[in-house]
Amino acid sequence: AECDFGWLNHILTVQTGGSVTIPCHYDEKYKQQKKYWYSEIDNIYRNTTEKNLSVIDDPDQSLFTVTMRNLQNKHTGTYGCVVDIQGQLAVTYELYIEVQS
Question: Across the strands, what pairs with 30?
Answer without folding.
Answer: none
